[in-house]
C-alpha cells in the first residue's frame, strides 16, 4: 500500500515530523526540558518480508522509511530496488562484499557445553559489511538520502554539500566510512586521542576525514559526541548509530530482527528469549522493534523476552531499569515510558567513571536508546543483566570454540548474559544471541 506521508512522532514531546520535510532524524525539540526526545514511526508496515532475495534492504524494504519515502515521492518499487542494489554493489567494491542475509544456526556444541536441552540460536554478524552489524544502521540512513536525491525532493537541495558526521572509533566508524565511501559522500569521523591504530589506518584508507577530539576539562560528556553534535548543528548530516541523533539508523537494525525471524520461521522455530549486548542501545532496540512489529502482524506467536547485557564497567541501562522497578512496579510498559520520558535525568545520566572492559564496544557512558529497551524489558518481563570480565572471557572462549565464529568479546557478550542467567539457576528457554562483531587484531 502506498502511503500519503511518512511521519514519526517524538516519544517525549509528541511532536510529529514529516520525513518529507525534515528526514525524521532527530526531534526538533531535542534538548528542551528534562525530556527524552526520540522519534518513532507513526506508521507500521503492512508486510515485513517479501520472502525472496539475499539483500536485506530489498527483501525487508517495507519496514524502512527509505522505501516508504521512495513510494511517497513517486519512485516506483523497481526504482528503490535499483538504488538499494546499486548501493550494495558499491559497498561490495569498497569492502569486499555487500549485505546479504547473515547466517543463523542452532549451536548444538554450545548447548552441550552449557548443559542445555533447549536450543541456542546464533546469528552471525561477523561476516557482515565491515565486520559487524553496524553498517546495517547506516545503510538505512544512506538509502533515505539516496531516495530523496533520486526523487528530487525539496530536501535534496544542497544535500551533497552537507558532510556526514559520526562520533566513534570502533565498529560504527568503520561501517560509516565504508557506506560513505560507497556512496561517494564526504564524512567526518570524530575520534578520541587514543583511538586504535588499526581503526585509524582503515578509516584513513577509506578516505574519512578524522577529527581528533581532546577532552576539555570545562565540559562534561564525551568530547567526540560534543564535537559531532556541533557539526550537526552547523549542517552536517548525523550519520550516527544512536536513535536520538538519528532515528532512521535504528531502522537499519530492523533488518537483523527480520532476518532472525525469517530464518526461524523457515524451520518452524521460535524463541522464548533474546539476549542482547547493549552499548548505546540501537542494536537491542531495533531487534526488539522487529520482533514487536512482526508479532503485531501475527507472524510470530510471542515477542521473545528481552534480556539486555552490560558490563560491570558501565551499566547505565541496568541502573535505569532498577529505578523503574523501584518506582513503577505495577505500571504498564506504556505508562512507564510516558512517565520516565518526562524525567530523563532521574533514570539516565552519563556513567561517572571512565569505564573499561574487554567488551569495549558496549562501554557507552549513556544508553541512548534506553526508552525502547525499558519498554521491551517491561513488556516481555525481561531483565537488564550485568556481567563480569571473567564471564565475558568465558563466553568468548566458549562461543568461539563451539561455534567456530571468530567473534570479539563485545560480539559474544550476549552469550555472557546467557551464561550468567544459567549460573543464577535460570533457563531462558529457546534463546537467540547475536555474535555481533569480528575479532580484530586490536579488539
Ligand atoms: C560488535 C558490537 N556489538 C554490539 C554493540 C552494541 O551496539 P549498540 O551500541 O547499538 O548497543 C557494538 C557497539 O559498538 C559493537 O561494536
pLDDT averaged residue by residue: 96
**Main pleated sheet:** 6 strands, mixed
Overall helicity = 40-55%
Rg over C-alpha atoms, rounded to the nearest angstrom: 20 Å
Order of helices and strands: EEHEHHHEHEHEHEHEHEHEHEHHHHEHHE
CATH architecture classification of the domain at 104-131 and 248-435: 3-Layer(aba) Sandwich
Widest sheet: strand order?
Answer: 4-5-13-10-11-12
Shape: globular
Query: Which band does the percent of strand residues land in?
Result: 5-15%
Oligomeric organization of the protein chains: single chain
Q: List the uncertain runs.
A: none
Ligand inventory reads: pyridoxal-5'-phosphate
Under CATH, the topology of the domain at 104-131 and 248-435 is which? Rossmann fold
Task: Tell me what the structure shows.
Helix content is 42%, strand content 13%. The chain has 443 residues and is of the alpha/beta class. Strands 4-5-13-10-11-12 form a 6-stranded mixed sheet, with helices on both faces. The chain has a 4-stranded parallel sheet with strand order 8-7-6-9, with helices on both faces. It is globular and about 60 Å long. The model has no long low-confidence stretch (mean pLDDT 96). The structure holds pyridoxal-5'-phosphate. Pyridoxal-5'-phosphate is lined by residues 132, 170-172, 241, 277-284, 361-362, 364, 410-411, 436-437.
